[in-house]
Every structure is written in structure tokens, then in C-alpha cells.
């Protein structure tokens, strides 16, 4: 989806992160490349969607505003993903909305012994997030379930955000 003009309205990045069996250097290189691509893109709305092999739990401290209060549990890859989200000043979409645990897991181990929420949606703007849900009845042919994201964005919202950003740079921000 592209808008005619100098800057595209929406960019979607699709990512597949290395698993825990990879060396730390390879995982770090993945996140550095993803951050580089993210920062080079100048779209107003940016979404990163993919299998991060990371478990991101609920917010643990008040400083973790990029993480919502509705997560399942944490692991080491989840910690690394949280660092990436904080560095890029984005929002973890999965944990922002309350869902039953049966509708949160996105991957099931062979044999059905384990279920984890390892597929994630990361958004650049919190207020465009309408819904994040798992489509349980969609068969993908793997242990993964389809992750669906509902969003909305308007031209007015984009203008207001750009106005606030411009005024915050000049120090002339006025209440609206």
C-alpha cells in the first residue's frame, strides 16, 4: 500500500529471527540489520511482523511502556526483542490487548506438548493498533497459527502527529 507523494504511508517489515541454537553474534547481527532497515525507512506507519522466537511477558516496570500488561511469559530472546523495541521506540502490539491465553499462542510444538507466543507484531504508533488476534481455524501447514492485526490510520492523525513532532523540535509545543 503506497500513497502518492514524497513519503509512503505504510511499510511492513517481515522478519524471521534466529532461534536460541544460533550464536549470540548472529542474533545481534539480525537485530542490528533490522534496526538499520527500520531507521532508513521514512514511512509514517511502520509494522514489523514475524517469528522472533521470543516470549514477551507482561510489563515488569513502569519504564517498560513499550510493552503492554497482557503477555504470557519471558525468555532470553524476549529480553533481546524488548531491547530492540525500546531502542527503536516502537510498541509491542501483542501485549497491548487482553486476550484469553487460548487465543494468544502462535506456535505449537510437534505433538502438541508446548504452546508459545513467539510470533509478534511491533508497531511504530500505539494509537493505530485496533486489534491483534490469532486466527485459530486457519491451517498453515506448520506449528504456527496465523496472526492477524487490525489497524486504522487517518490522514488527520498523521498530520497531528507530525505537527506535534515539529513543535517539539522547536520547543513551541502548544496544547491542542
Automatic annotation (TrEMBL):
SUPFAM superfamilies hit by this protein: DNase I-like (SSF56219)
UniProt cross-references to Gene3D superfamilies, sorted A to Z: Endonuclease/exonuclease/phosphatase
Source species, domain of life: Eukaryota
InterPro entries: Endo/exonu/phosph_ase_sf (IPR036691)
Full protein name: Endonuclease/exonuclease/phosphatase domain-containing protein
Organism: Necator americanus
Amino acid at each position: 500500500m503506497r500513497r502518492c507523494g514524497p513519503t509512503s504511508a505504510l511499510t511492513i517489515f517481515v522478519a524471521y529471527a534466529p532461534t536460541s541454537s544460533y550464536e549470540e553474534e548472529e542474533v545481534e547481527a539480525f537485530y542490528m540489520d533490522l534496526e538499520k532497515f527500520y531507521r532508513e525507512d521514512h514511512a509514517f506507519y511502520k509494522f514489523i511482523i514475524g517469528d522472533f522466537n521470543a516470549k514477551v511477558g507482561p510489563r515488569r516496570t513502569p519504564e517498560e511502556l513499550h510493552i503492554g500488561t497482557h503477555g504470557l511469559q519471558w525468555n532470553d530472546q524476549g529480553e533481546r526483542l524488548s531491547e530492540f523495541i525500546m531502542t527503536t521506540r516502537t510498541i509491542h502490539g501483542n501485549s497491548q490487548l487482553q486476550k484469553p491465553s487460548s487465543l494468544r499462542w502462535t506456535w505449537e510444538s510437534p505433538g502438541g506438548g508446548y504452546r508459545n507466543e513467539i510470533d509478534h507484531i511491533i508497531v511504530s504508533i500505539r494509537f493505530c493498533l485496533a486489534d491483534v488476534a490469532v486466527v485459530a481455524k486457519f491451517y498453515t501447514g506448520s506449528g504456527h497459527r496465523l496472526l492477524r492485526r487490525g489497524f486504522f490510520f487517518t490522514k488527520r492523525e498523521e498530520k497531528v502527529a507530525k505537527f506535534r513532532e515539529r513543535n517539539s523540535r522547536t520547543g513551541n509545543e502548544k496544547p491542542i
